[in-house]
Amino acid sequence: MARRSDRTPAIPDLGIEQDEAPQVQVAVSDVHVRYQTPSSDSADRAAQTRGQRIRNRLLGQQPMATVRALKGVSLVARAGDAIGIVGLNGSGKSTLLRIVAGLERPARGFVMAKSMPVLLGVNAAMVPDLSGRENIRLGCLAMGMTPEQVADAIEDVVEVSGIGKAVHHPMKTYSSGMAARLKFAIAAASKPEVLLIDEALATGDAAFKERSEERMQQLRENAGCVFLVSHAAKTVEETCSRAIWLHQGRVVMDGPAYDVAQKYRWWAWNLAKDETTRAASLLEDAIREGVDTVVDIQQPGTTNAPRHAIGTRRMRRK
Ligand SMILES: Nc1ncnc2c1ncn2[C@@H]1O[C@H](COP(=O)(O)OP(=O)(O)OP(=O)(O)O)[C@@H](O)[C@H]1O
């Protein structure tokens, strides 16, 4: 592998016939994510123990509620995959990307990647007072490129971003679409094997969409894989080869982008029209049609295992 970080160990024996299928880039096994958040819900207040109630009253704090953002998600991404992730607000899409990127640690389950995934979020940190060009330099260096590689790549990044002369202006003057385009171009410049994109393409215009799709295609051809989170099932259908439909932290379907996007769109349309009975039956059908992914991977040794990517419970050992 070209690069490997201490956060992302090599995938050991995958138990999968590597000759017959493209190489596995990312494996997510039975990942559960829970968040603790303050809640003003009377049910959460009632569920407190006496000790918690006294403590919260003394400290002036609200009771805590547990949000289960992911409930046993498993998937395998292979070289050449462009995987769109669709689902309603709060279904766990961004959480899944953060977990694959290694920015969060699951409560249970684990993630392994062949090389360090690069997460491109629309909120990726950049320096607002510096020009687009200076942010390209910083962003590329932060992704591990050498100054020589940055110098070679910079014109290409400017071209892919398509922001023209604005590249010399401070980033704080950019529209959200311009900033998103620049971030996409920077993230793609390091030619990561695993690129994770959160909604970025939705903000670009038609010309940018074409350029970014071209760049995604190049990454896939170079044995990489791309994950794209989008609310727009149409974007996923047009840009991706495969799609995963998440609902309430679970995988409903994982299959060809067209099939999954069509089913998701029809379900969401019925839901929006308050056709709840039909929507419920469409969801049931989709779950029944979906195939459960079981990732059979031996855990890496604890010495080079990424702490963030391995849950605290149910760690399987060889
Ligand atoms: N830091 C956090 N603390 C508490 N709850 C969180 C946190 N981050 C996410 N959640 C909750 O986890 C669930 C999944 O959130 P996530 O952002 O992954 O959904 P999403 O599908 O990306 O939503 P959207 O389409 O609105 O961006 C939601 O219920 C959300 O409120």
From TrEMBL:
Coiled-coil blocks: none
Record region (Disordered): 298-318
Transport keyword on record: yes
Tree of life domain: Bacteria
UniProt keyword list: ATP-binding, Nucleotide-binding, Transport
Keyword Nucleotidyltransferase: no
Gene Ontology MF: a single term: ATP hydrolysis activity
GO cellular component: membrane
UniProt domain ABC transporter: residue ranges: 54-273
CDD domains: ABC_KpsT_Wzt (cd03220)
Pfam families: ABC_tran (PF00005)
Family stated for the protein in its record: Belongs to the ABC transporter superfamily.
Name of the molecule in the record: Teichoic acid transport system ATP-binding protein
Source organism per UniProt: Serinibacter salmoneus
